[in-house]
Write a structure and sequence with these properties.
Helicase, Ruva Protein, domain 3; 37% helix; 7-stranded mixed β-sheet; 10 helices; alpha/beta; two-stranded antiparallel ribbon; 20% strand; 9 strands; Rossmann fold
Length: 279
């Protein structure tokens, strides 16, 4: 049976909850879809929605049933204490990256006046924006190979009133000078692990932002090898990594110009963040 005969808020919410799995969580998602479709929080069960709102609600519910992530549907997401727009085709920031941002801010606060920071693979710009908000005196670069991502980063920075330098660059290809901090959440998913990713990540995120090559180390290796050339003495590299990449990256770093290297755990206790301090 179709849904066009359903017109009241109560009828539509019951249909949506069933379509999304019939659980308590599905009922909450149904209400979230209703808010997105109508912009109204306090709708009574017996209220009737107009054709446009009913159609929009059905489209949102069907998209969510296919696994489309909420930030992609809402085209925005929260990060730390601010919110960014997430246009189609740009990677959605994850909670682990908030932890990376907090580590990066703590290191950047130790830098001298007017420091420089570089965010590689900036995506929506969240890491660069967080650093620029923490150090208004800083020069923060945000680089990516995706024009969509660069446009999103520039737009988000402007909306939030922070100044960052947005530049198209394949890792360090267009980067100049030395930085006190280099930070990145690069592609680190191994190809053999691709099909184990959640459907809403695998099917709806840009693959280039996730696929780290055969072993997941392709981009990470390049960054760890080349970063010392772009760091000031004592400068810090911070990377988000997969837990099983810890030993390989620490072994690689031993052959580079690093005075200190370690891997820090995330809040779940998994090895997640590579830190290298240049000699």
């Amino acid at each position: 049976m179709g849904t066009r005969h359903l017109t009241t808020v109560g009828e539509l919410l019951r249909w949506a909850a069933k379509r999304l799995g019939g659980t308590a969580a599905a009922a909450r998602e149904a209400r979230r879809a209703l808010l997105l479709a109508t912009g109204e929080r306090l709708l009574r069960q017996e209220e009737r929605l107009g054709p446009y709102e009913r159609g929009r609600f059905r489209r949102i519910v069907e998209a969510r049933a296919r696994g489309v992530p909420w930030p992609a549907l809402e085209e925005s997401t929260a990060f730390l204490d601010f919110e960014v727009l997430v246009p189609p085709g740009v990677f959605i920031p994850r909670p682990e990256t908030e932890e990376l941002a907090e580590l990066a801010i703590a290191e950047f606060q130790k830098a001298p006046p007017r420091p420089r920071a570089l965010d590689i693979g900036t995506g929506t710009g969240v890491l660069a924006i967080a650093l620029a908000r923490a150090r208004p005196d800083a020069e923060v670069w945000a680089v990516d190979v995706s024009p969509r991502a660069l446009h999103a980063a520039q737009r988000n920075a402007k909306r939030l009133g922070v100044k960052i330098k947005v530049l198209r660059s394949d890792i360090f290809s267009a980067v100049e000078g030395k930085f006190h901090l280099v930070v990145a959440n690069p592609p680190y998913v191994a190809r053999k692990e691709w099909w184990a990713l959640p459907k809403e990540v695998r099917d709806f995120e840009p693959r280039r932002a996730l696929d780290g090559g055969e072993d997941g180390l392709a981009v990470l290796t390049t960054i760890v090898r080349e970063a010392p050339n772009y760091l000031a003495p004592g400068g810090v590299l911070l990377l988000e990594i997969a837990p099983l990449q810890k030993e390989a990256l620490l072994a690689l770093a031993k052959r580079g110009r690093w005075g200190e290297t370690l891997v820090l755990s995330d809040l779940a206790g998994r090895p997640r963040f590579f830190l290298g301090r240049r000699c």
